From TrEMBL:
CDD domains: HTH_LacI, PBP1_LacI_sugar_binding-like. Transmembrane segments: none annotated. PROSITE patterns: HTH_LACI_2 (PS50932). Gene3D superfamilies: 3.40.50.2300, lambda repressor-like DNA-binding domains. It comes from the Bacteria. This is LacI family transcriptional regulator. InterPro entries: HTH_LacI (IPR000843), LacI/GalR-like_sensor (IPR046335), Lambda_DNA-bd_dom_sf (IPR010982), Peripla_BP_I (IPR028082).
């Protein structure tokens, strides 16, 4: 890994000038700052946060790139991850990549050019593989979450196939056969469909593909859901995520269908309000997610400093079913 002396030499400035270029305390001309940033980018150098005297602070800064902002799952994950990283001497900076490859690249470039020591990210399906390859070759700490877009990186996954299987199996064993799966477009949908199909296969029942409803990100989601429910006539619904689930609940209310008397309902994600209304959910341990993220990114720093060349780590977390009162027994 390049160091601050390498950056100073390439930029044609002194080491103190490099410190000043990354500090908000000292004045540095825009021209000098651009030369330093360009040299740092070329060398793959990521500076430590500097204090008022130009020395290094003890905490490293790790960036977290998310593809959604208004998402209770991510809110809980960020809370637990920040707590665990704090215990290990890191601070967390959250950025939004909107599931866009171009925004993701801009975030990476900003993190490299400024003060971040490592990056945790939910990768865009169409991300910049060449940039990731370059960073990985330089042993820059990287951890991808929930999608295996880059097989050479350490990865933390959630078993969405298992989570869907548990929910659908619970509904089937409660006597439901017309089960709608409602989700927005998402790379995890394929695994959820596999879990859905596995539950039906184990019960030796035919699944109806009309019950798999993939929605676009549209303002008219509630009306689309109402139309689909009217067409399919399900006895149970499994919805994914908060916004989709709220639209489902509103649609059912406007159709004068009650939960669970008229239709059973499970939400994929144990949202804060689901327990209050007795809704069965597929839940994740946010504490475990936060702890594993912190341990895995910390392990990246240890591997870099020790010069070890281990194979990429891949951990998979199992979700669990939290049964409440929103599923009616039809048997």
């Amino acid at each position: 890994m390049s160091n601050i002396k390498d950056v100073a030499a390439l930029a044609g400035v002194s080491v103190p000038t490099v410190y000043k270029a990354y500090s908000n305390t000292y004045f540095t001309s825009p021209e000098i700052r651009e030369k330093v940033y360009a040299a740092a980018k070329e060398l793959g150098y990521v500076p430590k946060t500097v204090n008022r005297t130009g020395g290094k602070e003890s905490k490293r800064t790790v960036a977290l790139f998310l593809d959604e902002i208004v998402n209770p799952f991510y809110s809980a994950m960020v809370r637990e991850t920040s707590k665990e990283l704090e215990h290990k001497g890191y601070q967390l900076a959250v950025m939004y990549n909107s599931n866009s490859a171009s925004v993701e690249r801009e975030n990476f470039e900003a993190a490299i050019a400024h003060k971040y020591d490592g990056i945790i990210f939910v990768p865009s399906p169409e991300g910049d593989g060449e940039l990731i390859k370059q960073l990985n070759a330089k042993r820059f700490p990287l951890l991808q979450l929930f999608r295996t877009v880059y097989p050479d990186l350490d990865t933390l996954l959630i078993d969405d196939e298992l989570g869907t299987y548990l929910a659908v199996k619970h509904l089937l064993q409660s006597g439901h056969k017309k089960i709608m799966l409602i989700s927005k477009t998402n790379p995890a949908l394929v695994k959820r469909e596999v879990g859905y199909a596995r539950a039906f296969a184990e019960e030796r029942l035919e699944m109806d593909n009309e019950c798999l409803y993939l929605m676009s990100y549209a303002d008219c989601a509630k009306e689309m859901i109402k139309e689909k429910i009217h067409a399919v006539q399900p006895t149970a619904i499994l919805s994914v995520g908060e916004s989709t689930s709220i639209n489902v609940i509103q649609a059912l209310s406007e159709m004068n269908l009650s939960i669970p008397d008229d239709i059973s309902f499970i939400i994929y994600d144990d949202l804060p309000w689901t327990a209050v209304y007795g809704i069965t959910t597929v839940a994740h341990s946010y504490e475990s997610i936060g702890r594993l993220i912190a341990e895995m990114i910390d392990g990246q720093f240890n591997k870099r400093e020790n010069g070890s060349g281990e194979q990429p780590a891949r951990l998979v977390l199992d979700p669990r079913l939290v049964a409440r009162k929103s599923v009616k027994i039809l048997l």
